[in-house]
Every structure is written in structure tokens, then in C-alpha cells.
Design goal:
315 residues; mainly beta; Methylamine Dehydrogenase, Chain H; 3 domains; 3-stranded antiparallel beta sheet; disordered N terminus
């Protein structure tokens, strides 16, 4: 980066902070504290062998036989079954904010709102529809993909043999998405869930009352919804008890649905934020000066490493 006066450098930090503040509300993407990954279960393809160094991860995703981890520097680490190159992250491996994994494909969401997809594309599940911009969330199903836009609409592509890519009208007002093996869920801003796709086990029949939901998850043939009161509602195929939530059904903060099992994360202390802000680097449900300062510091470091970047040249 070009050398400049002290005032110029402080002005640059101020501009970065203001822009970051605006960006955080336009692209609300969850960012969590960095840590290590614990993996367990079937390991026939090394999907539970987390590569070293096992540290600095902020998000995780599990496909059928492969795993993804998002690092705090915005890069993705992938391991496990790689027959379709689903573990070969495209260059440049940087600037990612979210990840998701399907049967044999992977998706990564970039800071600019675009989606990068790689792996099996036999049904076009890696061919992101144009315009590839303005996405805030991603979900990978068995052989299809979902993307949530800033305007609250859902874009779906890939295999559609059960209508899992046919988003019901009105396609607006969505705040979260989930993709199962061949059914999809969308969470509306009013706390209701819309479900579509294969329904042979009732996984698309949301139990009444369909209200007060804050998070969703879709598995092989079952669905989960997290309520505002921190309880879990589960429906669909109940083989192996995947829809039988253990008692006491309270105090949950997050949910996940697998092939034949379900997960619920419990926790004490401050409840999770109603909206996940990209600028909330310390997970305190707000974007303040400490977040701006950290962002500006990271930006300056990046500019020192990439001085040719036009954004790094003081005007």
C-alpha cells in the first residue's frame, strides 16, 4: 500500500468502518467465534479426520461423505470423499462467509454475495443461475441447491424430480432456507415455515401451529423447526427416533438434521441474536466501534499483502 500521512490513514480507517457498517446490514451473514472441530460417526472416507491445524474455524458443513470447515480468514478446508472433487476448493480460496455440503457437491458464499459451487454437477446443482449476486444464505440438498437473496426470495437449481426446486408462491419474505435429500424448507419473516418437495413421510407437513419458528433444518426424510421458546418441533419419518426430541424439550439454541439423526444445541447465558449481523465479530448482537476497528485492521493487513488492489490506494 502507498505510504501516506497519519491523517490519510485514519481517514481510510473511517471510510472502511462506515462502509462495513452499511455492508453488515445489507448482507446479514452469521459470524461466530473461531474454534476447533470435533467429528464423530462413520469415517469410511476420512470425513471425520479433521486436517491440522484444527483451529480457527467459524462454521462447519457435512455432506454425505465429506466435510467442510470455514476458517476465520475466509478460507475453506475440505476433507473426506472426493470422487467428484467436492473437496477441491476452487481458487482463490478466500473471502468466504458461509458453507454448505450436499451429496457430492459443495457451495461457498462470498462476501460480495456470489456463490461458488464445485463437485458433482450431473443435475446442474453447481450451475448457479444468473445473476450470481445478492445472496445471503445457501443450502445444499442431495442433488440440488438453494440460495436466499437479499430481497427475501429463494433461487433453486439442480435436480427437481420431486419439485424440491419449485419454490411455492409468493416467493418472498424468506429469512432462512434448508435443503434435505429431496425436500426444501423456507422460514418466513412472520415465523412460519413453507415446505415443498418429496412428502412420502410427511416431511413437508408442518405441524400446527405453524408460527413462532426461528430456525429450520431438513434431513433425509424429516424436518426440524426451532421455536421462539427454545423448543424443537420435529416431523416426518421417525425411523431410529430422529423426530423424538429428548426431554426436556427446552433451552435449545440451534438445530441440525442428518440422514437418520437430529441434533440440538443447548446453551446458557445470553440467547442467540434475532438477526445474525456480519459485523458482529464478538457475538454481542450489535455492530460497534470494536468491530469496525478489527475490520479496518484486517483490511490494512490485506492491503499490505495486496497493494495493487484499487480499494487499497488512497484517493
Amino acid at each position: 500500500m502507498r505510504s501516506g500521512s497519519k491523517d490519510e490513514r485514519y481517514s481510510f480507517i473511517t471510510v472502511v468502518s462506515v462502509c462495513f457498517f452499511l455492508w453488515a446490514f445489507v448482507f446479514p451473514i452469521p459470524i461466530y467465534a473461531a474454534g476447533e472441530i470435533v467429528a464423530w460417526g462413520y469415517n469410511g472416507y476420512g470425513e471425520c479426520n479433521v486436517p491440522e491445524p484444527n483451529t480457527g474455524f467459524t462454521a462447519i458443513a457435512a455432506g454425505w461423505y465429506h466435510s467442510l470447515g470455514l476458517k476465520s480468514d475466509g478460507s475453506i478446508v475440505a476433507w473426506g470423499w472426493n470422487a467428484y472433487s467436492q473437496c477441491t476448493v476452487p481458487e482463490s480460496n478466500t473471502g468466504f462467509t458461509a458453507i454448505t455440503a450436499g451429496w457430492g457437491h459443495s457451495l461457498g458464499l462470498k462476501t460480495d454475495g456470489s456463490i461458488v459451487a464445485w463437485g458433482s454437477n450431473i443435475y446442474g446443482q453447481c450451475t448457479v443461475p444468473s445473476p450470481n449476486t445478492g445472496f445471503t444464505a445457501i443450502a445444499a440438498g442431495g442433488f440440488y441447491s438453494l440460495g436466499l437473496k437479499t430481497d427475501g426470495s429463494i433461487v433453486a437449481w439442480g435436480r427437481n424430480n420431486y419439485g424440491q426446486c419449485t419454490v411455492p408462491e409468493p416467493n418472498t419474505g424468506f429469512t432462512a432456507i434448508a435443503a434435505g435429500e429431496s425436500h426444501s424448507l423456507g422460514l418466513k419473516i412472520d415465523g412460519s415455515i413453507v415446505a415443498w418437495g418429496t412428502n412420502y413421510s410427511g416431511q413437508c407437513i408442518v405441524p400446527s401451529p405453524n408460527t413462532g419458528f426461528t430456525a429450520i433444518a431438513a434431513g433425509l426424510a424429516h424436518s426440524l423447526g426451532l421455536k421462539q421458546d427454545s423448543s424443537i418441533v420435529a416431523w416426518g419419518y421417525n425411523g431410529s427416533g430422529r423426530c423424538t426430541v429428548p426431554s426436556p424439550n427446552t433451552g435449545f439454541r440451534a438445530i441440525a438434521a442428518g440422514g437418520g439423526h437430529s441434533l440440538g444445541l443447548k446453551g446458557s447465558g445470553t440467547p442467540p441474536c434475532l438477526f445474525n449481523l456480519a459485523g458482529d465479530l464478538n457475538d454481542d448482537c450489535k455492530v460497534d466501534f470494536s468491530d469496525f476497528a478489527r475490520m479496518a485492521e484486517n483490511w490494512l493487513i490485506d492491503c499490505q499483502a495486496n497493494p495493487s488492489n484499487p480499494a487499497c490506494v488512497p484517493k
